[in-house]
Design goal:
With 352 residues, the protein is an alpha+beta fold. The protein is built from eight helices and ten strands. It has two domains: 2-111 and 279-351, no CATH class; 116-210, Pdz3 Domain (Roll), CATH 2.30.42.10. It has a four-stranded antiparallel sheet with strand order 5-4-6-7, with helices on one face. A two-stranded antiparallel sheet has the order 1-2. Helix 2 (85-111) runs antiparallel to helix 6 (268-290) and helix 5 runs antiparallel to helix 6.
Length: 352
């Protein structure tokens, strides 16, 4: 129960950081903010500021930064609709930028406590490994790409090898300072004897790099970018049919997954560290997903902003605000429907 509470609070915090990004950008841009809310639904607490209402609402899986003229026209010169284009753009991306920076900062803080990191450089092979040699893999090879996709961090090796149904892989390595493409390597997990016990693995051992300030920064940025790429691959799999909609998970499922992960971490300190790391992944996930060009999301508003800018340059016309509002409203209804579907699916999965 403790981990569930921590996960819920963490999720609410990430939403708060997102909306705080919008809020700060709006204030710095001189746009009037009517209400800044953490949470959705029934009002629990509020405080009226000089021009902004600050509120806390019942449901922690959401929040908003309501600006004057956000969804319609307004005569107020400080309305969002009357702000210049670059200010609108900054306000719209500020939420996602805040989430990304928060996730990156958390990753850097966690990595700063580590003495070293696993790298993608091969340090050895399990006895019986069949793909060792000058035309195959060698000790000292740094694996830089698999099947044309870059290896950014150590875990990408197993991730890329396991993707798809390929029986062979094209592996790019850096050997003695030179990049070499090893084609059609039939590298698959198989059973090896390790310390007298059967273990299913790829048969590779990898070097550990000592932790330095520069390596921590490099790994932190690479991990953040890799998180974005993992989300993109998940979307690819969803739209290609490799996974079904039953694989989708919403706030309920995410909190449940975080709780289960924490409970299996083997101790309170490990559990908290794993929760924080997973929270960084969710923060970057929120940053990426909110910038998708989907109506009602920040990315959908950015799309209309850029489209209107293009239309104004070419035709000296813009899409009327009310029509854009209709599109965002329709998108919001569809998103709510999807959220309800995913929530029911999460509940069913947890119960079953």
């Amino acid at each position: 129960m403790l981990y569930i509470i921590i996960a819920i609070l963490m999720f609410g915090l990430l939403i708060g950081i997102h909306e705080l990004g919008h809020f700060i950008a709006a204030k710095l841009s001189g746009v009037r903010v009517l209400e800044f809310s953490i949470g959705m639904g029934p009002l629990l607490w509020h405080k009226d500021g000089k021009e902004t209402k600050y509120s806390l609402r019942l449901l922690p899986f959401g929040g908003f930064c309501a600006m004057e003229g956000e969804d319609d026209t307004s005569d107020d010169p400080r309305a969002f609709s009357n702000a210049v284009g670059w200010k609108k753009f900054l306000i719209l991306i500020a939420g996602s930028l805040s989430n990304f920076l928060a996730g990156l900062l958390v990753i850097l803080c966690l990595f700063a406590t580590s003495a070293g990191y696993a790298s993608s450089t091969v340090s050895g092979f399990v006895d019986g490994f069949p793909y060792e040699g000058s035309q195959m893999l060698m000790v000292g090879d740094e694996i830089t790409a698999i099947d044309g996709r870059a290896v950014l961090i150590y875990s990408d090796v197993s991730t890329l090898l396991s993707r798809g149904n390929q029986k062979t892989h094209d592996i790019t390595v850096r050997r003695d300072g030179e990049k070499i493409l090893l084609k059609d390597i039939p590298l698959q997990p198989q059973e090896y004897q390790v310390d007298g016990k059967p273990v299913t693995m790829y048969g590779l051992y990898f070097e550990t790099e000592a932790s330095t300030f520069s390596s921590t920064l490099k790994l932190g940025f690479a991990t953040s970018v890799d998180f974005v790429r993992l989300i993109w691959w998940s979307l690819e799999d969803l739209f290609s049919g490799a996974i079904g909609v039953n694989a989708l998970s919403g706030p309920i499922g995410i909190v449940d997954s975080m709780s289960q992960m924490a409970e299996s971490s083997g101790g309170l300190i490990n559990a908290i560290c794993n929760l924080i790391y997973f929270g960084a992944f969710i923060a970057i996930n929120l940053a990426f997903m909110n910038l998708l060009p989907v109506p009602a999301l920040d990315g959908g508003r950015v799309f209309f902003l850029l489209l209107n800018g293009l239309l104004w340059l070419i035709f000296r016309r813009k899409i009327p605000a009310q029509y854009e509002g209709y599109v965002h409203f329709a998108g919001l209804i569809l998103l709510i429907g999807l959220m309800v579907f995913v929530a029911l699916q999460d509940v069913y999965r947890i119960i079953s």
